[in-house]
Amino acid sequence: DTGVSQDPRHKITKRGQNVTFRCDPISEHNRLYWYRQTLGQGPEFLTYFQNEAQLEKSRLLSDRFSAERPKGSFSTLEIQRTEQGDSAMYLCASSLGGLLNEKLFFGSGTQLSVL
Amino acid sequence: KQEVTQIPAALSVPEGENLVLNCSFTDSAIYNLQWFRQDPGKGLTSLLLIQSSQREQTSGRLNASLDKSSGRSTLYIAASQPGDSATYLCAVRWYSGGSNYKLTFGKGTLLTVNP
Predict the structure, then answer these.
(1) E strands along chain A, which residues?
(2) What value does the CA radius of gyration of chain A take, rounded to a whole number of Å?
């Protein structure tokens, strides 16, 4: 068990380009989350998966954002036609457990800079 | 609106001091409350989770309390050390008004422990 892994750690892109991030959760964890964090703020919920099913998307997530978790393993988050306002740290977390006692294990994040 | 507020935004203390970080939330219908630690440029590490029926949790030098009726939680750090320097985030999981699996975070308290 090496923890939650995210790739890449840093991504610099030009406005209008598409970017894709990858998250590898802890292997036995069935739930996977994506959060976004900007400087000086707490993380904001984007979406989560239970196994391969995407069960909720935040209203913050525009149509330019899409996430997948094929076969309930790793997950990808794609942002199309990036905008400067997309610049943030994108955090992935995985978990196992019920609503009362679920602890999230976070990756180190992908820092996106849109120029 | 369900919100989490953390006070103070920043705190600087000399090594060895005991300290308290505060978290308040607007709706008492919660599943649990968690405290996380975040080091600069890194992901989050779960410190303590308090279920709605519990009043406190302890881990080493850390003690977290929960007063659901008043919408408050505190994180007590005993005998602080320079290695405790980090941002501490409070997060709430509510069971009304939205996603049961979403965590809502405060903005965090930046703690600096001076040698």
Answers:
(1) 5-7, 10-13, 19-24, 31-37, 44-50, 53-57, 65-68, 75-79, 88-96, 103-106, 110-114
(2) 13
- What is the pLDDT tens value at each position of chain A, 115 positions in all? 579 999 999 999 999 999 999 999 999 899 999 999 999 999 999 999 999 999 888 887 889 999 999 988 999 999 999 999 999 999 999 998 777 788 899 999 999 999 9
User: How distant is the Cα of A16 from the closest Cα of chain B, in angstroms?
Assistant: 25
Q: Please tell me if residue B95 touches chain A, with a CB cutoff of 8 Å.
A: yes
Report the C-alpha gap between A34 and A106 in whole angstroms. Answer: 10
Q: Is B108 on the interface with A (CB under 8 A)?
A: yes
The alpha-carbon gap from A12 to the nearest alpha carbon of chain B, in Å, equals: 16
Q: CB contact, 8 Å: B43 with chain A?
A: yes
| B43: number of Cβ within 10 Å | 23
A55/B contact by beta carbon, under 8 A:
yes
Which residue reads 């509510």 in tokens?
B94
